[in-house]
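B., you asked whether I could sanity-check this one before it goes into the benchmark set. Here's the sequence:
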Amino acid sequence: MFANKEVPMRVIFEETGNFAALIDAFTELANMPETQGIMILACEANDWKFDEVEHWLKSSAIPIFGGVFPQIVSGVKNYEKGTILVAFKEKLEIFTVKGLGDTTINFEDQLTPYADQWQPPEKEGSETFIVFVDGLSKRIADLVETMFYCFGLSRNYIGGGAGSLSFKQKPCLFCQKGFLQDAAVVARLDVTCGTGVAHGWQTISDSMKVTGSEGNKLKTLEWQPAFQVYQQLIKDFSGKIFTDDNFFEIAKSFPFGITRLDTEVVVRDPLMKGPSDSLICVGEIPAGSFVRLLNGRPETLIEAAIKARQLAESNVADLPESANAFIIDCISRVLFLEDRIAEELSAAAGSHKMFGAMTLGEIANNGRDYLEFFNKTTVIGIFSDKS
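And here's what the prediction gave me:
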């Protein structure tokens, strides 16, 4: 049973990553009469057999959705193995979007039927969309922008990118249709979720115009090959030099920031050097936009986690002392902070009961600002007890 009838969810952390243990935890939640649907956040290192899990997903009688991530979060700790299951007592409606890397697909065609079916909620912010995407797809920002135009800002949005730190694209999302790749899974809930977003990265360069890009491939900055510009800026700032095998070790400390009017820069994470001295990033950087190089210190990132929590708290009416907090935190922050990630998670949680995932990109709004796909950012959603 849900411990408190006003609490919109119940959370179980299964620490072994074993499939049989997942079934036991799922059955416990599914057998509660209040359960309307279940979200699952799984680790890439879990001991799951693909065919076995997919058969189970397709046979589920209860709505189910989720993703496979590099790490998950339970309390104030991050885990490389294990599974988080979240049972919702409110009605859960799930849909999928296909072809996130296909430039011929019009996302509006897939989203419009749901937008027509789901009119804006009577009370602004009383409905939440949880959005998981394949974090290595090429058109994530396009999808997020289309969701903004189709569904508007009367809802709350929170989610992020699933996938592997190997940066090899493979099935990483799931629902009752089975496993999905190059896709998105969206769950609609009649639950209020106050969100907060902050990153802590600081600008260290002048503004540069993006003169060439294609999907998540950044080709040129100020008409020069993007990688050549990037490596020179980093060398001038830090003295660090790229070799054949240290790209991510250096790049994790030097993301780009896309300039936005009246808001923080939107961070973009370079993943690898691409063809013709291009840069492959998590998410698109549109041609014609302006970017700056960013850098950060552990202290500024930890302070940003506090800011994200405080922003989320400010967006929840009648905030209890200890609520359910859903964190979407970029996996590259773990790689950057190393052991100090524990400080960030503690700062993010405050007095709340926290769960979540370490992701390849983050999705959020706060009910007032433009819906965005972020990188290297902390997103916190605090669920109201007043569903």
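One thing to flag: Residues 9-198+300-383 form one domain. Otherwise nothing jumped out at me.
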